[in-house]
Amino acid sequence: MYPILFSSVLMLGIGIERLYNLRRKNIVNSDFLQNIRSQWDWQNPQKTLQLCNSYDNSLSRVLKVGLLRVGGKLDEIERAIEGAGQHEASLMNSNLRVLGAVANITPMMGLLGTVFGMIKAFNVISMSGTGNPGLVASGISEALITTAAGMVVGIPALALYHYFRGKIDRYVFEMEEISFQLIEELSYDGMRKAKPAKPQSRERPKRAPSVG
Fold this sequence. Notes:
The protein is an all-alpha fold. It is 79% helix and 0% strand. The chain is built from eight helices and no strands. The protein has helices at 2-21, 24-27, 30-38, 45-54, 58-67, 74-92, 96-128, 133-194.
């Protein structure tokens, strides 16, 4: 029972820690996104980089990687953004492996307790026979309690694991989409505004017909 109790405390601690760190303002800060869109300037990307440095959230770090490569090929910028997104995903997935292990191991520990309880019950039967059902019932109850305890811890741990994984996947997709959109707008505006205007063609004056 003690390993199952320890696993329950571990599950509760990881759940609270991930709920706190995976808040939206730590990943896709709405104030940062609003400031980025209002100060987006293709002529001065350093200004946008300074804004990214002033915010500490996942989107600002992903966008910073793309901004540092502005001027290069668009596919290279996209690969850099995808790499930064995967790096942020690995940071957001921290402790989830432990939570997944708790979800898988605690039911097995409960089953192990069931096996020990049944062994105890059969030992009692072999030593004292079936004349004292109370002794046999204590071993069976121990088996059932450990099984129930393992599932009570394992089922919520598995639910939390999949909830956080889904939330992280949605965050990563949203960050990459926002970064791609902003970088493409920046590159398009830069090319469009840097393109020189076509000179207006002047009409050549018609020559007067010669009088022959």
